[in-house]
Design goal:
The complex is a heterodimer of chains A (66) and B (423). Chain A has 66 residues and is of the alpha+beta class. Chain A has one domain: Alpha-Beta Plaits (2-Layer Sandwich), CATH 3.30.70.20. Helix content of chain A is 23%, strand content 21%. Chain A is built from 2 helices and 4 strands. Chain A has helices at residues 15-19, 45-54; strands at 2-5, 24-26, 32-34, 60-63. In chain A, the strands form 2 sheets. A two-stranded antiparallel ribbon of chain A has the order 1-4. Chain A has a two-stranded antiparallel sheet with strand order 2-3. The longest helix of chain A is centred in the C-terminal third of the chain and has 10 residues, at 45-54. Chain B has a single domain (5-421), classed as Cytochrome p450 (Orthogonal Bundle), CATH 1.10.630.10. Chain B has 19 helices and 16 strands. Chain B has helices spanning 9-17, 34-37, 43-47, 50-59, 77-85, 121-129, 135-139, 142-154, 164-169, 171-181, 188-200, 206-229, 235-241, 251-264, 266-282, 284-292, 297-307, 338-341, 376-393; strands at residues 22-23, 62-65, 71-74, 90-91, 100-101, 161-163, 243-244, 247-248, 312-317, 321-323, 326-328, 333-337, 398-399, 406-407, 415-417, 419-421. In chain B, the strands form 6 sheets. In chain B, strands 2-3-12-9-4 form a 5-stranded mixed β-sheet. A 3-stranded antiparallel β-sheet of chain B has the order 6-16-13. The longest helix of chain B is centred in the middle third of the chain and has 24 residues, at 206-229. The N and C termini of chain B lie far apart (59 Å). The mean pLDDT of chain B is 93. The chains are: A alpha+beta (66), B alpha+beta (423). Chain A binds chain B through residues 11-14, 17-18, 26, 28-30, 50, 53-58, and chain B through 127, 130-131, 133-136, 298, 302, 359-364, 366, 368-370, 372, 376-377, 380.
Chain lengths: 66, 423
């Protein structure tokens, strides 16, 4: 499982780095960024789903499998 | 260092010329039918807008009014979102729906950039502010905010009933934004008046409204000159020195941005804190749950932001067009109700209820698209700290007199009188 941010859609609401701080961080302007390569460790899967489901801009994608 | 002559008297004259716009007839009084004659300034809307919005969403999802020179009120999430995303057809040139439309050539900058700006200028003006409002930067304000909240609560010593709106919630954003802008904390009470002048004095006669707005800009000029004389590490000095397109900002952009930061951060956060305490005072189950499970607060806070979203924005239609089944005319207002969007059953299960542990909550309380509230991270920090401090020291509280609670009128909604019994 892997997370991706669509930077065209992201407006810096910050829900992803609030809900899944192990997977997401903010850049110097508050836009969401992926920590590392975006691969979701087993313990972070529910946080990853929460981040996806709470993004008001639908900017986060979860790629299952891989 | 060269003298900074941007902030001269001449600049103030050009600013006053911005008030040459289009005025429409002031129409007040009871609403005949909310689908054809809505007004967000009538007492019925202030007291409880949600049944009105729910009714409109069912029978007339894009309501119309001839008041304010003509305007539309979409109540479905999908329509509110579509307008928020469509900066091509809907301008932010004025974001307060009133009887005054600023001149069209004020776009794309508007009177208070970047909230009043359209692309492409909007992006550049917003970029100036974003670094000052990231989560990491606003976290630095947290210890001082917490200490201030604690000191307000300590001031309740010996009282059984306090007004959570005027004795608590109101003071928190005023202190925080004064600190960030580098204004004297003792000026706080004046900020309250500025907010009333801009956001609540909508139907005043034009001359009086201009005079009131001028009071704010007179105050900001005093602060600008104080910061020119004594630069310091705060947002005012930052804006004075900021550069756009290789040049320092025009003076009206500096004071417009200062006005925005001062005004936009106060009523809004005050409303969110007050509405949250109001809900918890009248809902013992939710209050007790948060006392027992303090880790639930960030989740609960998002739900309270959804259900009691304080902020409604406005847009101006750019050109005549048929839009989602209605005939919009150039210069018609759009009352862009994020609160209505947040209660659309097509978007949220149990939309009209507070579900205190709602884990999936794609609400639009801070807007959608390029105008997402620049201060959202600051607002969330203030709301969380204000609630943590209150619940930590005052775990049991109730409405002292439900009939005494009053709500603000206009586009920012929150309690303005909120007597709570705290022991």
């Amino acid at each position: 499982m892997k997370v991706q941010i669509d930077t065209e859609r992201c407006q810096g609401h910050g829900r992803c780095y609030d809900l899944a701080p192990g997977l997401f961080s903010e850049d110097d302007e508050g836009y969401g960024t992926i920590i590392g390569d975006g691969v979701v460790p087993p313990g972070e899967q529910s946080n990853a789903r929460l981040a996806v489901l709470n993004c008001p801009e639908h900017a986060i994608e979860l790629i299952e499998g891989g | 260092m060269a003298v900074d002559d941007r902030f001269s008297e001449d600049f103030r004259q050009t600013r006053d010329e911005e008030y040459i716009g289009t005025r429409s007839e002031v129409i007040t009084g009871p609403v005949a039918d909310w689908a054809t004659d809505f007004s967000h300034l009538e007492p019925e809307w202030s007291a409880d807008p949600y049944p009105i919005q729910d009714d409109l969403r069912q029978r007339c999802p894009i309501a119309h009014t001839s008041r304010f020179g003509g305007g539309w009120l979409p109540t479905r999430y999908e329509d509110v979102a579509a307008i928020a995303y469509d900066t091509e057809r809907f301008s932010s040139r004025s974001i307060i729906m009133s009887n005054f439309r600023p001149p069209r050539d004020l776009a794309p900058v508007g009177t208070a950039p970047p909230i009043s700006s359209d692309p492409p200028f909007h992006h550049d003006a917003r970029k100036l502010l974003l670094p000052a409002f990231t989560k990491a930067v606003v976290t630095r304000q947290e210890p001082a905010t917490r200490a201030f909240c604690d000191s307000l609560i300590e001031g309740f010593e010996g009282r059984d009933v306090v007004d959570a709106a005027t004795d608590y919630a109101q003071h928190i954003p005023i202190r925080v934004i004064a600190d960030m802008l580098g204004f004297p904390p003792k000026d706080g009470p004046q900020f309250r008046e500025f907010v009333e002048d801009l956001l609540e004095g909508i139907n005043l006669p034009p001359d009086e409204r201009i005079a009131r707005v001028s009071r704010l800009f007179d105050y900001l000029m005093v602060q600008v000159h104080d910061h020119l004389d004594q630069p310091r590490d705060d947002l005012t000095t930052y804006l004075i020195n900021a550069e756009l397109y290789g040049q320092k900002l025009p003076p009206d952009v500096v004071t417009g941005a200062m006005a925005l930061l001062l005004i936009a951060g106060i009523d809004t956060t005050w409303s969110a804190i007050g509405a949250s305490l109001w809900h918890l005072a009248k809902t013992p189950g939710d209050r007790e749950r948060l006392i027992a499970e303090p880790q639930l607060l960030p989740t609960a806070m998002e739900e309270l932001l959804r259900v009691y979203a304080p902020v409604t924005m406005a847009r101006l239609v750019k050109e005549d067009m048929r839009w989602h089944g209605v005939d919009m005319k150039a210069e018609d207002w759009i009352l862009l109700s994020f609160p209505a969007a947040n209660r659309d059953p097509a978007q949220f299960d149990r939309a009209g209820e507070v579900v205190i542990d709602r884990a999936v909550n794609r609400h639009a309380a801070f807007g959608l698209g390029v105008h997402r509230c620049v201060g959202s991270h600051l607002a969330r920090m203030e709301l969380r700290v204000a609630l943590e401090a209150w619940l930590g020291r005052i775990p049991r509280f109730t409405l002292a007199d439900p009939s005494a609670v009053t709500w603000s009128a206009g586009q920012i909604r929150g309690p303005r009188t909120l007597p709570l019994r705290i022991r």
